[in-house]
Specification:
The chain is α/β, with parallel strands linked by helices. It contains 13 helices and 13 strands. It has two domains: about 100 residues, Beta-Lactamase (2-Layer Sandwich); about 210 residues, P-loop containing nucleotide triphosphate hydrolases (Rossmann fold, 3-Layer(aba) Sandwich), CATH 3.40.50.
């Protein structure tokens, strides 16, 4: 058995979400949000660690990693699990992080996602975004949305990912999955080819730069239903982020485009459950209404909070309202509510000592 497989077995047996490897340190697992060392494994000294990392990369890809200093890929461990992997070089030497990808795509019901997320797949065109910090479950939620479309509609779906995490089986829809670095050179290159592919639905794994965002918005505007992710933690910041990435002389035009094409935003955070056993996703939801569109068009984004509050009946909700609901149900404790809340004053009474 490969040494790295021993670590994967330890990871899977403990229910950890991530495995962290850094040169000169013991391997570490992320358990229920906390990083815990595997002390019995010993330290990852340079040559030993280098050998472990090479066990699952062929010569060609190892040479690319050595040249670039970064490598993202997916790894299937027999039939037990798939992992999203990142190899990196750092000040202290080599490093790697592995995240477990569930072998079964979790449905929106499995995830306990808000019911309104099922409507994201019913649009004929437009832009739907799932946002949140790294590790908040964006990819898992989007996989659930794509699976819901696949199970209920006959559409042509393309995903562009780095790497491919969830492998979607063919159900009612036709699904093509392309991996950046293998099937296409970049997100932007993959997006440029979509105009000739007769798509209904497009998933962009990460909208990280101006060119990718501009191409995704253009596809949404011209008849494709586009799903994407951003690293923002609220609906308002998501709108601001998209507009701000454009040069100032283009921002009014993109504001007009977003007013029409932005159909929905789901901002997501993971919170530690009370008692430390597992985590639960909290969501902020904004869906397109006439008031929302007019507010974006006029550049009055601060008013979006009031629009969300006024439209709870159609599934909209603020992040802090979701967090407060979990607190009242006893699903999380007060300190976790304070630490994850966007408006801290609302939960100030639960602040840890020294942060009151």
């Amino acid at each position: 058995m490969a040494v790295i497989d021993e670590l994967f077995d330890k990871m899977l047996g403990s229910g950890a979400s991530d495995l962290h490897l850094s040169e000169g340190q013991p391997p570490k697992l992320r358990l229920h949000g906390e990083v815990v060392p595997i002390t019995e494994f010993g330290l990852l000294e340079r040559e030993r660690f280098r050998g472990i990392l090479r066990e699952i990369l062929d010569e060609k890809r190892w040479n690319v990693f050595e040249e670039r200093g970064d490598m993202d890929f997916a790894y299937a461990y027999e039939s037990k699990a798939r992992f999203r992997a990142n190899y990196n070089k750092q000040y202290a030497g080599y490093g790697a992080v592995f995240r477990t990808i569930p072998s079964k795509i979790l449905t929106l019901e499995d995830l306990g996602a808000p019911e309104v997320l099922k409507t994201f797949g019913t649009y004929n065109s437009g832009l739907c975004l799932v946002t949140g910090p790294t590790g908040s479950g964006k990819s898992t939620t989007l996989a659930g949305v794509i699976d819901h479309i696949n199970s209920n509609q006959a559409r042509h779906i393309l995903t562009i990912e780095e790497p491919i995490e969830f492998v979607h089986p063919i159900k009612r829809s036709t699904i093509v999955q392309r991996e950046v670095g293998i099937d296409t050179r970049s997100f932007a290159d993959g997006l440029k080819a979509t105009s000739r592919q007769d798509l209904d639905v497009l998933l962009v794994g990460e909208m990280r730069d101006l060119e990718t965002i501009a191409l995704a918005v253009s596809a949404a505007e011209t008849g494709t239903l586009v799903f994407g992710t951003l690293h923002t933690n609220s609906a308002i910041k998501t709108v601001d982020r998209i507009i701000d990435v454009f040069p100032s002389d283009q921002q009014n035009a993109i504001r007009q485009t977003l007013a029409v094409s932005l159909k929905a935003v789901c901002a997501q955070l993971l919170l530690k459950r009370k008692g430390g056993k597992g985590r639960i996703a909290a969501h902020e939801i904004m869906v397109q209404t006439l008031a929302m569109s007019n507010t974006i068009r006029e550049g009055k984004n601060t008013m979006l909070t009031q629009i969300i509050m006024s439209n709870r009946s159609i599934g909209m909700q603020l992040m802090d309202d979701c967090i407060e609901g979990y607190l009242q149900k006893g699903l999380i404790d007060g300190e976790e509510a304070f630490m994850k809340a966007l408006e801290k004053d609302r939960f100030r009474q639960y602040a840890p000592k020294g942060m009151e």
